[in-house]
Amino acid sequence: MIEQKALFVDGGLEAPSTSETITVIGASTGEILGVTPAAAEQDVDAAVAAARRAFAPGSPWSVWSAGERADLLDRLADEVEKRGAEAAALVAQENGMPFSTAMSVEVALPVAVYRYYAQLVRDYAFSETRPGMLGGTVVVDRVPVGVLGAIVAWNYPNLLTAFKVAPALAAGCTVVLKPSPETALDSYVFVEAVQAAGVPAGVVNVIPGGAEVGRRLVEHPGVDKISFTGSTAVGREIGARCGELLKPVTLELGGKSAAILLEDVDLAANAEGLFQATLLNNGQTCVANTRILAPRSRYDEIVDFFAALAAGAAVGDPLDPATLVGPLATARQRDRVEGYVARGIADGARLVAGGGRPAHLDRGWYVEPTVFADVHPDSAIAREEIFGPVLSVLPYDDVDHAVARANDSDYGLAGTVWTSDPDAARTVSSAIDSGTFGINYFMLDPVAPFGGTKASGLGRELGPEGLEACLRPRSTYSAV
Ligand code: NAD
After folding, report:
1. 242 annotated active-site
2. Which residues make beta-bridge pairs with 150?
3. pLDDT, tens only, 237-284
4. pLDDT band for position 480 (50/70/90)?
């Protein structure tokens, strides 16, 4: 069992202010994986104070050039990469993510994000001079927003950390990161990488804790901006409070995205891509395309295809390299997913694959990959984020109908179209109301802004837009 005894504050491992702990339970075993301290209010205050000191004018960090910050991000990428297998194995045990998925999405992708911001910031124009229209000149400086309070979900802990820490350091901000209790253990691997990379004291602080710690960060007058990834319900609460406080906020929230399969789709050729877009990380993925929209002419064939895809996916120990679908992160999450399966059946949908617990696994929070056909578009399983391996296949009459169905959602995070016709793909893509979209493929790219519309959130991460979200423009009118 792993036992962590300290919080990472002001560049060192500090004793917590209370004896409260977080117990992390293994998703595939139901047994205790490890224990960490749970930060309390005084720990938030200490972490914010350290981040403020590190940000203050004249501090060592405040005078680092963009090039020095870029070098630091490259070193951080190296150190995260070095510890990749250790972090991936921990995440697999904490939240059930298959190890091979973790190596790519929790290691290679975060490393790419750190390197991307290193490269971007080397020749970024932080200052621009414009001829004034009323005489003189105007200098527009892009200055760091200050101390960033970063609150992340448990489903992709290292990736979400990179989304927040990389642009913040690139911009010259300092960070207080609050990992989720469910994945508190892997945050200590990140802390080791931060220390080994030579991040100056106080620039990154890591304090695992629950909702109260998140609330304190949001409220704290020493935190200049909040960047939150999590559920829409909590996002609304944080957004409302930040509105009252006039504190800038980025919200990456839930989704219920649609995969539109056009009439010409080659199912066999796209099997891997369709799996990734719909069932990645056991469906515990905000961008999962859990509504499959199929043309009536091929409806039965597409239902059979997804039923076979689900039934054929190897379900098992996330550490086994052959596993495609692991357990859900927590018993609570499994109960929630099973509740949706029961509601789907009660609402009259036709269960064509899964629906139960796998017979060959007698412990862990497993749910079989599940597919429903004949799903009513207004039913709960068609409208609400399930956050598990449960897909709904809905028919459409023509492309306009498919687009209308895809857009008939409270959410707007992602979506895909599957076709060999590039013109048809672009027509569909441009008609979908979502922050991101994929054509025969879905995976985030560090160069492209990521975020949602409607109940999927506010603001963008990644790309130059993600750096701008950590900067604020400051104008100087000059008569000289
Ligand atoms: P959650 O909202 O319960 O918790 C997210 C984080 O917020 C955790 O660190 C939690 O401790 C903290 N928190 C909880 N209540 C809080 C409060 N009142 N104030 C401040 N902080 C609080 O979400 P979750 O169950 O951990 O994650 C699953 C959700 O995250 C899903 O809805 C999923 O779609 C979403 N998500 C979105 C994205 C995205 O980029 N859009 C990415 C991953 C996950």
Report:
1. no
2. 177, 227
3. 999 999 999 999 999 999 999 999 999 999 999 999 999 999 999 999
4. confident
Domain positions in the chain are 2-253+456-478, 258-445
Q: What percent of the chain lies above the pLDDT cut of 90?
A: 100
Pick the catalytic residue from 81, 286, 368, 461.
Answer: 286
SS3 13: strand
Amino acid identity of residue 253, one-letter, is L
Which atom number of ligand 1 is nearest to the Cα of residue 450?
Answer: 40
Q: Are the C-beta atoms of residues 96 and 329 closer than 8 Å to each other?
A: yes
Name the H helices within 321-437: 331-346, 380-383, 399-407, 422-431
**180 in contact with ligand 1, CB cutoff 6 A:** yes
Q: 66 C-alpha vs ligand 1 centroid, how far in Å?
A: 31
Ligand 1 in reach of 280 Cβ (< 6 A): no
258-445: in CATH 3.40.309.10: yes
**Which class does domain 2-253+456-478 fall in?**
alpha beta
Give the separation between CA 363 and CA 384, rounded to whole angstroms: 27
Residue 146 and residue 144: Cα distance in Å, rounded? Answer: 5
Alpha helices in 347-460 (DSSP H): 380-383, 399-407, 422-431
- Determine which residue's CA is closest to atom 42 belonging to ligand 1: 286
Strand partners, 276: none
